[in-house]
Amino acid sequence: MSATLEVKDLSTHFFTRAGVVKAVDSISFSVERGQVLGLVGESGSGKTVTGLSIMGLVDRPGRIVSGSIKLAGQELVGLSERDWRTIRGRKIAMIFQDPMMTLNPVLRIDTQMIETVLAHADVSRESARERSRQALSRVGIPSPDERLTAYPHQFSGGMRQRVAIAIALLHDPELIIADEPTTALDVTIQAQIIAQVQKLAAETGTSIVWVTHDLAVVSGLSDRLAVMYAGRLIEEGPTAEVLRHPHHPYTLGLLNSLPINNPQGQPLNQIPGSTPSLLRLPPGCPFGPRCSHRQDDCASAAPPETSVDHGVRLRCFHPVARQGALA
Amino acid sequence: MLAFILRRIGQSAFVILAMAALVFLSVFAIGNPIDILLAPDADQIEREQAIVRLGLDKPMWEQFFVFLVNMLHGDLGRSFVHGSDAVHLILGRLPATLELAIVALFLAALVGVPLGVIAGMKSDTWVGRSIMTGSIVGFSLPNFWFGIMMILLFAVELQWLPSGGRGPTGTLFGLEFSLLNPAGWPNLIMPAMTLAIYKVSLVIRLACAGTREALLQDYVRFARAKGLSRTRIIGVHVLKNILIPIVTVLGLELGSMIAFAVVTETVFAWPGMGKLLIDSIARLDRPVIVAYLMIVVAMFAMINLIVDILYSVLDPRVRITETAG
After folding, report:
1. pTM surpassing 0.90?
2. Staple partner for A69: which of A76, A150, B160, B315, CB 3.0–4.6 Å?
3. What is the fold of A5-228?
4. Cβ–Cβ gap A107/B236 under 8 Å
5. Is B77 inside any structural domain?
């Protein structure tokens, strides 16, 4: 059985006046049917651009320069805008970070839902409305009939994100790209939304790419974890394995900087330095200058992708020893 | 919604009252109409009679009170010059100005909005840049110069359009409108375009800025992620958001076009209200000036009211704050 999503050697570059920004640089991963992939990284690591690339929503001056994105075997790179439109919203849906901004403030919820149904299905307005109503109750919105005629500002943040999820689920997509959908919500709502998405995905067999900077969120949610740094995938593997035995010093640094892994009363751990500008990457391994395991050969060439035990892929010359991981 | 409208009407009434005082007092302060109205060789008795006849012998507060009471009866005085009712005089000229302004308004919206949206969508291409450059030209051209150049080109050189005046008209409710008679349309084209050129530029700039801003919003990205067509995203999601400032500005501009189309009306010898105002000022015909200003104030108050109502139709958030407050 082929995977729902197969991304191979994908590169998305932005051609700016200051130079070429390699926001996504030759990354590969796949997501099986019904599985959740956590795509983790700091701001500017390329995780959002990866999500947008899969949606075909990269705008100029950026474009996909090479690689392949296959959805259930169908190649998406190179599709015409018209063909893309039949994929977006129907086979791949996307949920964005800020539910305050993703719904159009001046259009009623029913308008925004019905138009989504009608964009991909040849049905009457009435049945489109009915489908929207069902979608709202499916994501746990009480009295969906009333809520359909409401405007976005009449909903709370969590409810708006539920509406966005309901819209994403209207066509039972094969894949949902969730771009930090819980970052703007408070923790209790966050947990509800995550549980909701998990349940719905399990019901429908939808695969999810969950983009986030929050390791705590994906640790309980994802089947596999992919860590991005400076546009590259530096470590990818089963979530439990990556969390328990991080191989890449950057992954280890991320885990150590979680407040929960920090002894009480001690200053919080942090990775020294800051993310490099994608226009002026250091030679060799981009993480080199900040890395605690750095050796001389790190600056000479970028480490190639290697497979290590337990299904983990890695880009590092000097990975963290297995024993040296978290207690 | 009803409470909202009633409160806005109350506000409008207060504005009109305040303006009445201001207008009356300021016009009272300029010149002595008797000097202009009477022949230079009129004797003292004739002067006294004229002063009493026009009510100028009474103290100012009494004149103002009489003015207010009459105003509430819809009477804004008689023209010193024409001897006829000032309101009638002005309203008789209103249709000509009104249709000019409305045609100009539609031109501004129908030309300005699409051009502005295109310029906003293609802001870094030559299409977008030339539209924006063109709008700067429209901003900076003096109205009268544009009018005169159009007359030179289309009336004198090409002889396609009449150079001025109001052509044949049709009648509706006893009022004359050029719009109702196709034979009168050629006369309307050039004055309306002259009046519209500045507004077109204004609308282009507003629509362009609005579109550029809207296109960066997450709701546009989400709409694209839903697989909507470009037409629907631009025509519904973007347009409805950018229309709010455009409606506001166009509403105010409609008022100023009706009230102050003086220059355009003069260039094209268009028999509208602007021409009447200029003549009345020259002759110190106080009642006409006051009546004119009062009508303009009432009109602005009404346009603002309509704009506010339109606003709440376009933007649901306005409605909520109003009912809650």
Report:
1. no
2. A76
3. Rossmann fold (3.40.50)
4. yes
5. no
